[in-house]
């Protein structure tokens, strides 16, 4: 199996090389990493992560295969111009007799209150814009050692002025975990390869005049991740990812670095190459047991370009 493992790399790189030139999409809010762990890691999570699982509900659902706990997570991220992004994720593992992980994820964007003026500067009142993507996802192990598959189906609706934009999108993902440079424990799968196609589907439909580009922000992501031994005081990890925006003709390179301390505290750094909004990012996570389950708190600090105020993202998760 080792020989075939590396044949997949040039194959995937070949099919991810080309992109189609087009305008920006009609659902750009889906391109933002709302979960603070993903934001702190530069979005480089397509090859999986040790924790938190809820960040994989968008990045690569295949990474949730084998999950044994039920989880609920809430995330919030104040964004540009007083806008707000939020995310709610529920993950359920039916049990050992059914090796299938399922869940629901809701991602939303709100402009809060926006004041409107006519061309003469007369106040016309206020309005608010709201976007939402709600979907179902699933993951299961495949009959190949360390290989898992996942996917998601989501419904998208946007409230743009006096029009509604709506449609469906599909995610498909693979994750392959195996041992590479583990040294101490050859059985430990410390290296992974990930592939995800996100937001695949037909153009969004408009209830009003067709004044906006209605393409989905379809992406193809390919990445790798390495982590040292899963036990110890300090556990470093590294991830690298290439994301191609098929409908915008763009490619972004993303990298993430992290250090897990005593399996309780984690410090994360990220870097995005090709992004006009943000480059570096940093975050931290804290996990601790309670009477009702394991609680995890994530935080991300994201400096933005062009003297825009930085972003602070937060998440609270409970694993039962």
Shape: globular
> pLDDT average, as an integer?
82
The largest sheet, given as strand count, sense and whether it forms a barrel, is:
14 strands, antiparallel, barrel
Class by alpha and beta content? mainly beta
Write a compact overview of the structure shown.
With 320 residues, the chain is mainly β.
Sequence-ordered SSE layout with sheet pairings:
Layout: H1 2-5, H2 8-15, H3 36-40, H4 56-59, E1 71-78, E2 84-92, E3 101-110, E4 114-117, E5 123-127, E6 130-141, E7 147-160, E8 163-178, E9 191-200, E10 205-206, E11 219-227, E12 234-245, E13 250-261, E14 265-273, E15 280-289, E16 294-302, E17 311-319
Antiparallel strand pairs: 1-2, 1-17, 2-3, 3-6, 4-5, 6-7, 7-8, 8-9, 8-10, 9-11, 11-12, 12-13, 13-14, 14-15, 15-16, 16-17
What does this protein look like?
Helix content is 7%, strand content 50%. It is mainly beta. Strands 1-2-3-6-7-8-9-11-12-13-14-15-16-17 form a 14-stranded antiparallel β-barrel. A hairpin with a 5-residue loop joins strand 4 (114-117) and strand 5. It is globular.
Question: What are the key terms here?
Answer:
mainly beta, 14-stranded antiparallel beta barrel, disordered N terminus, two-stranded antiparallel sheet, 320 residues, single chain, globular, 50% strand, 17 strands
